[in-house]
Amino acid sequence: MVIEAVPEDLEAKISVLGRLDRVTRKDCIIASNSSSYSSRELSSEVSGRYRLLNTLYYIPPENVCVELMSCGYTNPGIFDFLKGEMEQIGLLPMVAGNESQGMILPRIWVAMKRETLCMLQEGVAKSEDIDELFRDFFNAKKGPCEKMDEIGLDIIAAVERHYLTDAQERILGSDHLRWLEENHVNKGKLGKKTGEGLITKKIEEAKITREEKPPAQEV
């Protein structure tokens, strides 16, 4: 099995998958880790589409869920095989019942990202308040701002641009995406990997403040 995990660039992914199709054995499973492109969209240079599918892993590596989705031509036996192999190494595979742009979790996540960015762009809330509310309500370890910083804001912007069709842009607008690109991506503030993003710098500053704070005096 070989997994394509290049950035969310349609032409690059199609090219890489085509090369993998040409250089691998015909019984080698070819998977794409794309969260926004279906493997059907990426299959134009793959002659053996029976062995092509999406396998979406999540970061950080401690996350055990993996989404599997057919390209429309995937041999059904591949899913049973991969589920068995993945379960043996502690992963939790889930198969999408039908082809879906964004598969399962990313379809939920795309709405959360968009509304979070809209609130930041509109000045409705600060990133730390959004994340605190999210963690409290959902009993979550991280909020949407911290999660986007962890993924990388350049990747977030590329995925948002892919999802935003002309029709969606007319209905939903794209101010949130322009705000993200102008204030963060174009300035190199990409999140955790650069040390500054939507909330990363604030989290680090808060840690330093806590470490510098003297211990409480015993009474």
UniProtKB/TrEMBL annotation:
One of its GO terms (biological process) is fatty acid metabolic process. Gene3D superfamilies: N-(1-d-carboxylethyl)-l-norvaline Dehydrogenase, domain 2, NAD(P)-binding Rossmann-like Domain. The keyword Oxidoreductase applies. Residues 102-199 form the 3-hydroxyacyl-CoA dehydrogenase C-terminal domain. Keywords: Oxidoreductase. Residues 1-96 form the 3-hydroxyacyl-CoA dehydrogenase NAD binding domain. GO terms for molecular function: NAD+ binding; oxidoreductase activity, acting on the CH-OH group of donors, NAD or NADP as acceptor. PANTHER family: 3-HYDROXYACYL-COA DEHYDROGENASE, 3-HYDROXYACYL-COA DEHYDROGENASE FAMILY PROTEIN. This is Uncharacterized protein. It comes from Cudoniella acicularis.
